[in-house]
Amino acid sequence: MMKQILFSGVIGLFLTLVGTPLLIKLLARKGYGQYIRDDGPREHASKRGTPTMGGIAFILATIAAYFLSKLITGYAPTYSGLLVLGLMFGMGLVGFLDDYIKIVKRRSLGLRAKAKMAGQLIVGIAFAVLSLQFSDSRGNTPASTKLSFITDFGWSIGPVLFVVWALFMILAMSNGVNLTDGLDGLATGASVLVFGAYTFIGVWQFQESCANAQTLTNPGACYEVRDPLDLAVVASALMGACLGFLWWNTSPAKIFMGDTGSLALGGVLTGLAILSRTELLVAIMGGLFVLITMSVVIQVGSFRLTGKRVFRMAPLQHHFELKGWSEVLVVVRFWIIQGICVIVGLGLFYAGWAADK
């Protein structure tokens, strides 16, 4: 069963390593280049015209890697895996429409705010509602109406509040990844680290699943997750696909992921968190995305309340660029921050299991 994880990761990596340069040639031939803000760091001016919408590469590679790994190993897809992939594809489609209008139709702001929000709401609500269906033989649905940190805790918040909560998480994380995607390879590299962590979490939850309680040394520390191994397969495919894309996206980037990629990554990361019952833990695991989002909130809030800016420019990565840090230096140091967040998150995850042992 574990072969699925290896196959999905390797296939995802191969497909983006080989497929991304083909996409670059296609986008460049059509003239689908990136728009660069005039008020940003001056060094970014040279990036104007770089092909964007590169998220297409790792979205398609992840989906292909998932289904090919199933075909090779003979295992059937699960509802959890399909729901997470559906969320990624749906959010990516909204981002693609935004990129397409922005680049092809030459409308600088892309989709109108209401239309973009409507698209995200439709995709998010569909995911949240469907994730409470499809119970297995143990009565577990892909998602739970209880809040979760390392496992579910507290009272059920009910299906309506769950949908609202899921929507908030999806929109917040998608926005966080979108804001982080401002320097070559920054969001892609950070995502690789998080998806690697979720591959480990899925494998661990599968090995310590309550479905195998009779064979566990400590049944009290088991996990009630419907399809943990399949979530690991999806996370592995994502890790491989993003790693292959990073080869072409790192400085100097030959292609940008665009909203197509950033909305998809934020959506699928939230989907993995919800279905693996680690909803609040993802705020630590994806700590860099949270930190960068908060820098924008602080900047806007401070300017509106006091008329003064806290940072030279928001999001946070541009503040350090304007302080004289090179783009590569900012990216590598921010990757280190993200790595620390992942280590802390995995430490808390393991500590929660060990405490119940």
UniProtKB/TrEMBL annotation:
Keywords: Cell cycle, Cell division, Cell membrane, Cell shape, Cell wall biogenesis/degradation, Magnesium, Membrane, Metal-binding, Peptidoglycan synthesis, Transferase, Transmembrane, Transmembrane helix
Subcellular localization, as worded in the UniProt entry: Cell membrane; Membrane
Enzyme Commission number(s) from the entry: 2.7.8.13
Broad enzyme group: transferase
TM segment ranges: 6-28, 49-67, 79-97, 117-134, 154-173, 185-206, 231-248, 255-275, 281-307, 328-353
Keyword Transmembrane: yes
Catalysed reaction, written as an equation: UDP-N-acetyl-alpha-D-muramoyl-L-alanyl-gamma-D-glutamyl-meso-2,6-diaminopimeloyl-D-alanyl-D-alanine + di-trans,octa-cis-undecaprenyl phosphate = di-trans,octa-cis-undecaprenyl diphospho-N-acetyl-alpha-D-muramoyl-L-alanyl-D-glutamyl-meso-2,6-diaminopimeloyl-D-alanyl-D-alanine + UMP
Top-level division of the source organism's lineage: Bacteria
InterPro entries: Glycosyl_transferase_4, PNAcMuramoyl-5peptid_Trfase, PNAcMuramoyl-5peptid_Trfase_CS
Pathway it works in: Cell wall biogenesis; peptidoglycan biosynthesis
Named cofactor requirement(s): Mg(2+)
Membrane topology label: Multi-pass membrane protein
Family per record: Belongs to the glycosyltransferase 4 family. MraY subfamily.
HAMAP family cross-referenced by the UniProt entry: MraY
PANTHER family: PHOSPHO-N-ACETYLMURAMOYL-PENTAPEPTIDE-TRANSFERASE, PHOSPHO-N-ACETYLMURAMOYL-PENTAPEPTIDE-TRANSFERASE HOMOLOG
Protein's job: Catalyzes the initial step of the lipid cycle reactions in the biosynthesis of the cell wall peptidoglycan: transfers peptidoglycan precursor phospho-MurNAc-pentapeptide from UDP-MurNAc-pentapeptide onto the lipid carrier undecaprenyl phosphate, yielding undecaprenyl-pyrophosphoryl-MurNAc-pentapeptide, known as lipid I.
The protein's name in its UniProt record: Phospho-N-acetylmuramoyl-pentapeptide-transferase
Organism per entry: Streptomyces rubradiris
Organism placement in taxonomy: Bacteria, Bacillati, Actinomycetota, Actinomycetes, Kitasatosporales
